[in-house]
Amino acid sequence: MKTKATLIGFTAILMWSFLALMTAASGTMPPFQLSAITFAIGSLPGLAIFAARPERLKALRQPAKVWLIGVGGLFGYHFLYFTALRNAPAVEAGLIAYLWPLLIVVGSALLPGERLGWHHIVGALAGLAGTILIVAKNGVAFDPAYTLGYFAAFLCAFTWAGYSLLSRHFEAVSTDVVTGFCLATSLLSLVCHLGLETTVWPVDWMQWAAVVGLGLLPVGAAFYVWDYGVKNGDIQILGASSYAAPLLSTLILIIFGFGEVSVRIGLACVLITGGAMLAARDMVFKRSKVQS
Predict the structure, then answer these.
(1) Which long-range contacts (CB under 8 A, 24 or more apart) does 268-273 make?
(2) For 42-96, how does the pLDDT look when each residue is reduced to its tens digit (9 = 90+)?
(3) What is the model's pTM?
(4) Alpha-carbon distance 89 to 99, whole Å?
(5) Domain span at residue 49?
(6) Into how many domains does the chain fold?
């Protein structure tokens, strides 16, 4: 059961790896407008289930703290991420924001029934090192002038790690409630868009297809399976394995002609894949013993 849930959670990482490609293909739509539309699309599968099985609407009747954590996690992460990118260079802001897998692995030690091993930490650090190789290909330079952006990126990392870890405390809460989180995030993003941005619509069907794809996968289904994975699977393995997202994203961009293969990418592949396998050591060995 735990292994199955972990694998289901990992599909979120696979979907997030298409985020960069689909975002690039979606045109020049402002980030909050894109967030409002894609989260609205992401709520549609849940709304369809509610329409077919109205009795599942009771999943939305949750204490205020559940809504605060859920909406705060989804909307808070994106709000802080966009703020970071607007107030600091993308490379440095992205690296800081991508501390969340490491924070999940380390923070998991505070969860009941979890034990943090050296291999979890080393695996997560290897993943972080691989991510630095991918993102910081032209070097990293932290300038005090971008302090606001860096601070927002740190908050962004802590927000998503906190959301993932706190979700584990509410494992009895049905994943159906993620539909409500997506709708609330869409509404809040719309408010931010109307107040901060100028509306820009896709110019052709390919851009619209990318927007719909974003809503159905990386900004839709991914949050449902991630919720299920962190609640029922091995959150330490999921945290360390999350560093596979930037690697897979880079490989996908290369396949579609947006990048080139290099020694740096190969080394990053070794670090991230090896780190994930090291973090998953317990699950792999346990499975081998059961099969034998």
Answers:
(1) 268/130, 268/131, 268/133, 268/134, 269/130, 270/130, 271/126, 271/127, 271/129, 271/130, 271/133, 272/126, 272/127, 272/130, 272/131, 272/243, 272/244, 272/247, 273/244, 273/247
(2) 999 999 999 999 999 999 999 999 999 999 999 999 999 888 888 887 777 777 8
(3) 0.87
(4) 16
(5) 2-291
(6) 1
